[in-house]
Amino acid sequence: MSSLSSSLTKRRSRFPVGLYASLLPPLVWMTLLYFVPIALLVSYSVWRLEAFDIVQEFTLKNFQTIVFSSAYRTVIVRTIGTALGVTLIDVAIALPLGYFITRYGGRYRPLLTILVILPLWSSYLVRVFAWKIILGYNGVLNTALLSLGVLQQPSQIFLYNQFSTTLTFVHIWLPFMILPVITAFERLPKDLIEASADLNAPPWTTFRRVMLPLVTPGILAGSINVFSLTMGDFITPSLVGSPSGIMLGNVISSQFGVSYNWPLGAAFSLVVMLIVFSGLAIVVRQGALENL
Amino acid sequence: MTISPSVEKSLHPASGNALPRQQAKPWLLASWTLLVYGFLYLPIAVLVLMSFNDSTILSLPFKGITLNWYSMSLGDRAIRLALINSVKVAAMATLLATLFGLLAAFAIYRYRFFGKETFRIALNLPILLPGIVTGVAMLAYFSDLGLDLSLWTVILGHAVFGLPVALGPILTRLSQFPRSLEEAAYDLGANPGQVFTGVIFPYIRSAVIAGALLAFTLSFDEVVVTIFLTGRENTLPMEIWGRLRTNITPEIAAVATLVLLISTAIVLFSQWLTSREAT
Predict the structure, then answer these.
(1) How many other C-beta atoms lie within 10 A of the C-beta of residue B162?
(2) Per-domain residue ranges for chain B?
């Protein structure tokens, strides 16, 4: 192995052109189309809007606006709370499912995995809208509860609130949690579980002390997916959420749209980035970097 | 998405326990799995049902079966144009994303260079950070450059988040590539180009296809980045978004059902192709 790698190293120094040919195009491409725009967004956040003109001078006015407004603070807390809640619920749903599919799936495992991905191929917008049909006043849920005799009158409590927003998020991001969890369970060495059982560990102990530490990287990878997707979404709150239940994504899209205050919108984007980066820092500290 | 070896090392074996060995109860897990699949497919089932509903609004009550919404969606010029635009955008974005993703994956796999880990994480930022950040950042950038928004700006936006999407599976597959094969090819006198096209690429081809397929799917259905970067021409999700807020009829459900049918067929076909390749 060492002789192999040393001969490869020799070859590497002989052909440095290969490194530049493969590294530079994606690096330049992403710099020009992503890293520079992100840097520009950061500088927008410290500029200000004056009479519909963007003044390119350093100011922390936008961040003061965000921090000193209790309405904006509420939006930030609501967004983080919703994203955390959705992530935890998706973990709770995905763990037993991932365990079952990899342990008992047998030859149906690839099919069961495809069935998880398949909903992603129907329109995301229409799937969100479908929850409106399910939870609405004339919806599927009300119709079912009426015919079962649980309700006498259709109820309006199911739609346009925090419940419907959370439920819809849990549904649309669930595949992004299940897939990394399944992958993690698939890499679990079977003999470890057998060894644990042979040592008379009850299934729960085997799960908690043997399997859970090993699938944690997959859970964390899925969690950062779901958390980040929820943090930036504004479609779901605007379709099924309450008018007073807007999230950070709604604020950003309105600042870059109708409100036309790009510096403030950029400052809000920076807040979202900082929150997601804190989540990422936790994931990286847990050693799940390879899974990202 | 691979398990890092460091985690395996940190494993503590379960200590001996005096409790008797218990049988697992798969029926409990099985019913949970069934419930979850039900939850995943409930909105889709509702959608398909609604596409046949003989009613002018996209809602219950169910008033009878009609195929009118399907014939209407097939004859809808705006939908057809939007669909063609979506295919164009997704195809171009996928091509760019897969090409640059493949190059980046090769550089990460093959070479040691300064800041490699940072490079890998930085390339993943477009999918680690919410899409809205990509959207507004690129909108601000294009507007500063004086670039008019069009399908091309949408393509660039989709290619940016498509790169890490394509990179993921390719890099995972490359990391499993037995280097001895590469060494053997060199020993037999192949040049680096021949080694890549003749030895490495065949090994990772299915991962490249999987990555490209994923990038295409995500681009085809993308809303958040597209909203900020789109010009006058609509992609299919933009057309649906416009109608969701104004005149929503079961026609949209019919369109969504058709898209689901076609993409399912494509995915199953590609699965069949790769499984045939594997045997």
Answers:
(1) 30
(2) 75-278
Overall fold of domain B75-278: MetI-like fold (1.10.3720)
- To the nearest whole Å, the CA of A159 is away from the closest chain B CA by 14
Write the CB contacts of A123 (distance below 8 Å, at least 6 apart in sequence): B221, B236, B237, B240, B255, B256, B259, B260
- On whether both A76 and A116 belong to a single domain, the answer is yes
Q: pLDDT for B151-161, tens place per residue?
A: 999 999 999 99
d(CA B117, nearest CA chain A) in Å = 10
Range of the domain at A248: 65-291
Asked whether residue A22 is domain-assigned, the answer is yes
Q: What is the mean pLDDT of residues B201-226?
A: 90
Instruction: Tell me which residue in B47, B59, B130 faces A228 most closely, judged by beta carbons.
Output: B130
Q: Is A121's CB within 8 Å of B260's CB?
A: yes
* Chain B residues whose beta carbon lies within 8 Å of the beta carbon of residue A125: 223, 237, 240-241, 244
- Asked if the model's pLDDT at residue A9 lies above 60, the reply is no
Report pLDDT digits (tens) over A117-142: 888 888 889 899 899 889 988 888 98
DSSP calls for A174-210: HHHHHHHHHHHHHTS-HHHHHHHHHTT--HHHIIIII
* Nearest chain A residue to B129, by CA: A228
Contact A86, A291 (CB under 8 A): no
A–B: how many Cβ contacts below 8 A? 320
- pLDDT tens sequence across A210-254: 888 888 889 998 999 999 999 999 999 999 998 888 999 999 999
- Can you give the pLDDT at residue B22? 45
Tell me, yes or no, whether A22 and A82 share the same domain: no
Same domain (yes/no): A82, A194: yes
Mean pLDDT of chain A: 87
Contact residues on chain B for A140, CB-CB shorter than 8 A: 46, 60
One domain for residues A125 and A20: no
Closest to A232 (Cβ–Cβ): which among B15, B132, B186? Answer: B132
Angular region, A54: left φ>0, alpha ψ -120 to 50, beta rest: beta
Q: Report if residue A60 sits inside a domain.
A: no
ipTM above 0.90, yes or no: no
Rounded CA separation A137/A133 (Å):
9
A9 lies in a domain?
A: yes
Contact B3 A290 (CB under 8 A): yes
Q: A16-30 and B116-128 are packed helices; what angle lies between their axes, rounded to 10 degrees?
A: 30
- Contact at CB, B132 and A34, closer than 8 angstroms: no
Q: Residue B9: its pLDDT value, please?
A: 36
Count how many domains chain A has: 2
The answer to whether B217 contacts A121, with C-beta atoms less than 8 Å apart, is: yes
Cβ–Cβ contact A281 with B under 8 A: no
Dihedral angle at the C-alpha atoms of B83, B88, B89, B92, nearest 10 degrees?
160
Q: Do A28 and A167 lie in a common domain?
A: no
Per the structure block, which two tokens stand in for B208? 């490249």
Out of B14, B47, B267, name the one closest to residue A209 (CB). B14
Co-location of A14 and A103 in the same domain: no
* Residue A222 is assigned to a structural domain of this protein: yes
A34 plus A73 within the same structural domain? no
Decide if B154 contacts B226 (C-beta within 8 A). yes
Partner residue opposite B43 with nearest CB, options A130, A203, A262? A130
Same domain for A18 and A96, yes or no, is: no
Mean pLDDT of chain B: 84
